[in-house]
Amino acid sequence: MRQLPKREYDPNLLVGLDTSDDAGVYKLTDELAIIQTVDFFTPIVDDPYMFGQIAAANSLSDVYAMGGKPKTVMNILGYPIKSLGPDMLAEILKGAADKVKESEALIVGGHSIDDQEPKFGLSVTGLVHPDKVYKNVGAKPGDALVLTKPIGVGIQTTAIKKEKLTEQQLDKVIETMAELNKMAAELLEDFHPNAVTDVTGFGLLGHASEIAKGSNVSIHVQYSNVPILDGTLTLAEQGVVPGGTKANHKWISDCVEYNHLNQIEQWILCDAVTSGGLLISMPTKEAEQYVKRMHEQGRTDTSIIGKVTEKQDCYLYAT
Question: pTM value?
Answer without folding.
Answer: 0.94
